Amino acid sequence: MKKAAGVPGLRPATVPVAGPLASAGQSASAGADLSTRDRVTQLLLEHGATTAAQLGSALGLSPAAIRRHLDAMLAEGDVIAREQVVRGHRGRGRPAKVFVLTDAARLRCGTHHYDNMATAALRWIARSGGSEAVEAFAAEQVSALEARCRAAMEDAGEDPLARAEALAGALTAEGYAANASTIASGGQLCQHHCPVAHVAAEFPQLCEAETEVISRLVGTHVQRLATIAHGDGVCTTHIPAQPGRAQSGRTVTTVRTDR
Fold first, then answer.
1. Which residues pair with 222 in a beta bridge?
2. DSSP 8-state secondary structure symbol assigned to residue 227
3. For the chain, first and last CA: distance in Å?
4. Count of CB atoms within 10 A of residue 28's CB?
5. Contact assessment for residue 173 and residue 153, using Cβ atoms and an 8 Å cutoff
6. Paired strand residues for 14
7. Does residue 165 contact residue 180 with C-beta atoms inside 8 Å?
């Protein structure tokens, strides 16, 4: 598992994000701009909140060049800027600005088909069967994902942190743009894309069912620290440093860190 640094570096984006393509009438420079912005979008999707300096370094762009692209994306509503959250001791000066994708930009990066229908269906389930029926539906929906990830993690061993790294790879293959890292208090699994974020914003049972799956797959109790569905830039799950076998029953703990 990779060691998380204070200011992690970014690897260059290699997979283009779905987006507008330059038409025949556009200039070559305009087409290049669109391609670069697609790469910026991909990096923000994969890594979450990121500074302009990190983006420029990953893409080989000067500060002025990356700023030009970010300004255009801000104007078009594809990104928002906010102060970087610094935990622990902070040096002098204002925190650096970080950039995150807006909901509209995320919608163009993945499959969010039939969100309205899914939400309507869950509302009907909630009216007809109550919260327990929604929980049962959510558990059923993630069961197939759990089976596929478990098969992909077959050779991951028993160590929860090693299993988290294998799970990150399996989730990335499922479209979640996930990564795992070690931190002082254990491990951290981050998912930078959520295909059901808009539905889960109303029905958190989907997030809870997914967190239970993560707990079972890594083999220990975990804590969900943040979710895209609740407005965070990344779904973050903490894996304690001294793991124990998951006990029977529910193993989900949700800890909000943005309040």
1. 252
2. -
3. 29
4. 8
5. no
6. none
7. yes
Amino acid at 63: P
DSSP 127-189: HHHHHHHHHHHHHHHHHHHHHHHHHHTTTS-S-HHHHHHHHHHHHHHTT--EEEEEETTEEEE
- Cα–Cα distance between 200 and 141 in angstroms, integer? 13
Q: 15: left (phi > 0), else alpha (psi -120 to 50), else beta?
A: beta
How many angstroms separate the CA atoms of 105 and 156, rounded?
A: 34
The per-residue pLDDT for range 40-55, each reduced to its tens digit, is 988 888 888 899 999 9
pLDDT (tens digit per residue) in 56-106: 999 999 999 999 999 999 999 999 998 876 655 555 656 678 999 887 787
Q: Could you tell me the CA-to-CA distances from 193 to 3, 172, 205 in Å, in that order?
A: 22, 9, 18
Backbone angles phi and psi of 190, in degrees to 5: -120, 135
Summarize the chain as % helix, strand, coil (round to 5).
45, 15, 40
Q: Which residues contact 258 (CB under 8 A, 6 or more apart)?
A: 226, 231, 232
Q: Are 236 and 186 in contact, with CB atoms under 8 Å apart?
A: no
Q: How is residue 111 annotated by DSSP?
A: -
